[in-house]
Amino acid sequence: MTKRTTAEPVLSTRALNRATLDRQLLLRRSPMSAMAAVEHLVGLQAQEVKPPYYALAARLEGFTPEDLSGRLADRSAVRMVTMRSTIHLHSAEDGLTLRPLVQPARDREINYFRKGLVGVDLDRLAALSRELVEAEPRTMKQLRETLGAEWPDADPQSLAVAARCKLPLVQVTPRGLWGRGAQVSLTTVEHWLGRPAEPAASADATVLRYLAAFGPASVKDMQTWSGLTRMRPAFERLRPGLLVFRDENGVELFDLPDAPRPDEDT
What we know:
Layout: H1 13-23, H2 34-40, E1 44-45, H3 51-57, H4 65-73, E2 77-81, E3 87-91, H5 92-101, H6 103-110, H7 122-135, H8 140-150, H9 156-166, E4 169-171, E5 186-188, H10 189-193, H11 203-214, H12 219-226, H13 232-238, E6 243-246, E7 252-255
Helix pairs in contact: 6-9, 7-9, 8-9
């Protein structure tokens, strides 16, 4: 991050903390619905089943587990790998559009497994894996076994991870439902939702959503959150319509003009 002395307003660490808490719906409980909150927050980290429920219970007025569990059951919400190669809970629409946005990061992830993928045609691997999981949801163990039989000289775990990276896989219910235990079984988001693939969300639109939920923030902050690189061009395109601040270390921060920035004594 380039640092330079300017007349841009400086936001104290506490002021930034108050702003983030407000954007994250943590200064006061919100009357938002569960799905409105999930979309506002651009998803909830969901490596385990219960944290999304706790996250919404801490943020929303009158929240009950069924408010979220019901949305997973009716498939208006999905659990899938998106930002930072981490399971997130998203609205169905975000699952369809954010996953292709972060595909470059998933492609880079495959590079960590190249030694176990020597001689593997990744396009063929993706096509075969899609056939398998759309025929019926599969566990990672089942993918390792089936793909390992197809490529006996490759590492089975690397094959399964590559399939997860190449395809937009969701964890099917009952995994994720409140009070229900189930192993992770996977199918494609398109098959699960009965909807065709959609174009990736634009970088510019995602920056604006990120700032609404996490701002004020730097380019590096957004890249760390998303797992993407080279996001500065999007910020530069948006700069004329954004406010610019500095933190106490001189790092440039961007924000939406009409976003809440509570007094630091809040």
